[in-house]
Amino acid sequence: MKKLLFMMTAFALSSCDKGLPDRAFVTSPDGRTIVELSTKGDQLTYSVARDQEAIVSPSILGFEFKNMAALFGNMEIVGIDQSGHKSSWEQPWGERRLVHDIHREMLVSLKEKTNGGRLLKIRFRVFDDGLGFRYEFPEQKGITSTVIMNEKTEFQFASDASAWWIPTDATANRYEVIYKNTTLSAVTEAHTPITLKTKEGTYLSLHEAALVNYSGMSLQQTPDGHFEADLSPWANGDKVRTGASFKTPWRTIQISDTAAGLMNSDIILNLNEPNKLGDVSWVEPNKYVGIWWEMHLNVSSWGSGEKHGATTENTKRYIDFAAKYGFKGVLVEGWNIGWDGDWVANGDLFRFTEPYPDYDIEALAAYAQERGVSLVGHNETSGGIDNYEAQMKDGFAMFERLGIAQVKTGYVADIGNIKRINEAGAKVKEHHDGQFMAEHHIKVLKAAAEHKISINSHEPIKDTGLRRTYPNWISREGARGQEYNAWGSPGNPPSHTAILPFTRMLAGPMDFTPGIFSLLDYENNNRVSTTLAKQLALYVVIYSPIQMAADLPENYEKHLDALQFIQDVSTDWEQSIALDGEIGDFVVIARKERGGNDWFMGGLSGENAKNINQSLSFLDQGVTYEAQIYRDGDEGHWDTNPYDYVIEKKEVTRDEILSLKIVPGGGFAVRFVAQK
Predict the structure, then answer these.
(1) Domain end residue (candidates: 246, 270, 294)
(2) In the predicted model, what is the mean pLDDT of residues 287-308?
(3) pLDDT over threshold 50, residue 280
(4) pLDDT at 3
(5) Residue 172 and residue 272: Cα distance in Å, rounded?
(6) Among 377, 370, 371, residue whose Cα is nearest residue 355
(7) CATH number of the domain that 579 lies in?
(8) Are residues 526 and 474 in the same domain?
(9) Are residues 542 and 567 in the same domain?
(10) How, if at all, do strands 250-256 and 130-137 pair?
(11) Residue 483 annotated to the active site
(12) Which of 483, 574, 607, 656 is catalytic?
């Protein structure tokens, strides 16, 4: 097969020397994956195959414009440039310190046969675990600006795979939806990442990388059963507004023989540009607590009054707890003017430098610093972007002066309800994943970086790997998080966190807010549908460089033995390895702490029990470890007995197999302490 692929690539190059070919090929470094671009039949298409299995059948490429003729056929290849690349680069923080970038690249130059001979380039990068491609539209005579109305990129799959997906319709607010598992043909419109399993057993994930100055892409099924890129529109229906030249985000397809293999891919990061911020040593992974969960439990309120949560007294209680148990941050929501009344609808009322009278931010910042703790800032916008952008620099300056180095931003607004004033002075509404918001988030990152502040955005635009370019984008939400277990109807099912690692987490870190120990007592029959051991497992399975211990202090003090794992677990990693799993059923992940010798392993299940017999071959050679195991008890069950957990210790080496039982909705967390 490798010989055949080499011959096909060589043919394409030699044909270019002799004349104008109608096809071009590029293969992955291991020769298993081949990508073909074709102009045959006056259609511009691409296709992807792996081990002679068709992954993407010939699928159309191109654009429809507002201010010029469409461009998706009637083109000829005028140049093919190919190269290989092999390098490694270091993350300032992340799932792994070193990221390896090994790919083959093909840049195909095309010229339209009519309409003045417009030029277009398409760049492919093919890795052993998938590929990315993007359009590059160069400056050319007669074109001064571009308005894209549709990107015609198709994904025509060769078989009706199984799909795990969330919809893009009006009920799918800000990606906060329970994942569906259907046949691919039943998918109508889906956000990315969308994860597939073909009939042949190959796993795929479709997404995008480096979403800059462009609208977010979802997938829309066409009447003929294909899938086409669907760009989030501006308020007037334009999809993308740009200049005479532009580059699209990368359209990515991750490919793996196993479900776990998808999680070990770095394609999204590798397709982003390197760090543009310079020295980012001030970006510090850590763990935090906060005045947040009590509001979701209706113990306190965001707004002022008798139940106000963000008071000086209450914040000091959290600061004292954080200092006692080694947490570095205390998040406080509801601290600033604007939360009274219907705050979701009143985004223009927020004041980002003005605390409520019962919240002494100056004194609290000093109180925290004296105890080795920092406040974590919070800026809720409720989608009022002009109001936030007018104040955010002053807010960041205040936070910097107070020693606040992390800020959680929020964009709680219904789908299509981001508010801005347009160029004509009229109020219009945009989408969370549109071009306007793609640029807004980068604007926030740059402004925050001037004050050495990291951003954790909630209700955000989706992650496309821009944390590589802007390393102060330390985490985000962008999926259905823990809070739905307090007030959602229904809450998150046990399978939810066994699906996230294979879907949403392929895009990047998520601030899921794990660590709930109060598992039973909620209003409206809602429940945290996990065992306590599974809440510990989430700290390893759901990656984020900042992790919240989300429950109330008094609930942790009832289970100090289990709290110990949250205190011990790292948030910054030398290496991460997805060991095993099946989507929605179970997952097992191991990570080694950065700057230390200890490993951590987490595993969790969905609806069903699992018996895990896990090889420990990932551990370091020649080292004996004390395995500190936090696992479900034999009688545990997320519904009937969530507090049945066992903590035990044993000595292990990399030559052993660790056998663990996970109960329905359960999990385990292990710290491997290297022995001196």
Answers:
(1) 270
(2) 97
(3) yes
(4) 34
(5) 27
(6) 377
(7) 3.20.20.70
(8) no
(9) yes
(10) antiparallel
(11) yes
(12) 483
Assess whether 32 and 175 both reside in one domain.
Answer: yes
Residues 136 and 384: their CA atoms lie apart, in Å, by 33
CB of 670 closer than 8 Å to CB of 601: yes
Q: Are residues 669 and 580 in the same domain?
A: yes
175 and 262 fall within a common domain? yes
Give the DSSP letter string of 380-433.
E-TTBHHHHHHHHHHHHHHHHHTT--EEEEE----TT-EEEE-TTS-EEEE-TT
The encoded tokens of residue 245 equal 């030249």
Preceding amide of 494 cis, omega within 30: no
Q: So what's the pLDDT on residue 520?
A: 83
**Could you give the number of structural domains in the chain?**
3
Is 488 within the bounds of a domain? no
Q: Same structural domain for residues 249 and 289?
A: no
Q: Which domain holds residue 642?
A: 513-676
Q: 62-83 pLDDT, tens per residue?
A: 999 999 999 989 999 999 999 9
Q: Roughly how many angstroms between the first and final C-alpha of the chain, as a whole number?
A: 49
CA dihedral over 585, 590, 594, 595, signed as positive or negative: positive
Q: In what helix (H) or strand (E) does residue 532 lie, and over which residues does it extend?
A: helix 532-541
The reply to whether 96 and 146 lie within a common domain is: yes
* In a domain? residue 495: no
Distances (CA, A) of 489 to 296, 484, 525: 13, 7, 9
Domain limit, last residue, from 478, 503, 524: 478
Parallel, antiparallel, or unpaired: how do β-strands 286-291 and 329-332 relate?
parallel
Instruction: Round to whole Å and give the CA distance between 180 and 172.
Output: 12
Domain membership flag for residue 498: no
pLDDT (tens digit per residue) in 136-182:
999 999 999 999 999 999 999 988 999 999 999 877 788 999 999 99
Please report whether residue 485 resides in a domain: no
Residues 421 and 539 occupy one common structural domain? no
Q: What is the arrangement of strands in the sheet containing 240-243, beginning at the earlier edge strand?
A: 63-65, 145-151, 240-243
Q: Residue 499's closest CA among 14, 7, 61, 162?
A: 162
Q: Is the pLDDT of residue 2 over 80?
A: no
